[in-house]
Here is the input.
Amino acid sequence: MKLEIHILQSFPPRNLNRDENGMPKSCIFGGHPRARISSQCQKRAVRLFYQENTSLSDRDLASRSRAWMPELREVLIQSGGADTAQATIAAKLALEKLGAKIEGEKVESNTILFLGRTEIAAIADLLSKNWSDLAPKLHGDKPELPKDLGNAIEKALRSGGKPGDVALFGRMMAALPTVNVDAAVQVAHAIGVNALQQEFDFFTAVDDLAASDDAGADHMGETGYNSATYYRFANLDTHQLTKNLGSAAGADTIARAFAEAFVKAIPSGHQNSFAAHSLPALVLMVVRRGQPISLVDAFENPVRPKAGLSLLDRSIQNLDRHWADLCTMYGDGGKAYVGIVTRQQLQQHLHHLKNNQKASLDVLISGAIAAAFSAERGDA
Here is the structure.
């Protein structure tokens, strides 16, 4: 089953996700420039949100890092079988098996690895259990990892259930493709429903301790920003998630954590300067069999305020109408659940989806998760 999440969310002036020049990211859609928040930016915000705001255990969490060597080394030292020098070499060899080269005295690798704490613990356990075979090979000019031990490390990452983070977002290791994981989640780039008007904030910094007759600025600069209402879309494949986790146990908990985080998480870019902390005005969740469907074409033509209707008012009308058009054109089958929540003053703009309204976000998410995994078990 596919769990779709559709969101309309307005942000005041902000620069949540910037390009290489420091400008808010943008794109062309429907022949018009639009504000954009990248998929990667949203996914990182989601991961950070549920790490801090849900009850997921450490075994469900993972980190992207180049600094795994010190942590792996420390686990080996604490196991009692290795001194610092031996543990350092062993940790380097194990990580190099995963394609992460660590040069000289450096502690950081040249490659980011996406690993869970349970996976690091499993690698450390293999090194410790095979220490009698490994230790003699750590000396000399070319220390090496025994082939059987290297294969065991690969198998440990390839086989069995993955941490929730990895199960959701997948993993690619170019040097060791056998441990790659297909993501259960797809996240679209968020795009503005209205045409983009890029703006600049000119700012100065004044020396607080300057002489009273010094009225000049000590620093000047400018920051790009814009304001937009965004259409955001993500979908979660419950079958792929269950497969990645290795079992159905806890899959619904992981999915719920993702759904809640995708709705509530906000990227951190330039927040100290803009404090753009706005929650979504509308959240639509759909559970269906087969291919997920984005509703982005509802906004191919930029939305504008008109006749006393705000940008959000008209965006909701467009989404509601586009939903009905798709149902008419392609049929209404294959859906196991449709639910929507929006602010009370915006509910009047729902017509085709008005009978699918839920009392709260919590009710919406609970219903969607229950339907998705109930249908998943039925499909199985």
In short: The mean pLDDT is 91. The chain has two domains: 2-57+183-199+225-379, 64-162. The CA atoms of residues 358 and 364 lie 6 Å apart. The two ends are 10 Å apart (CA to CA).
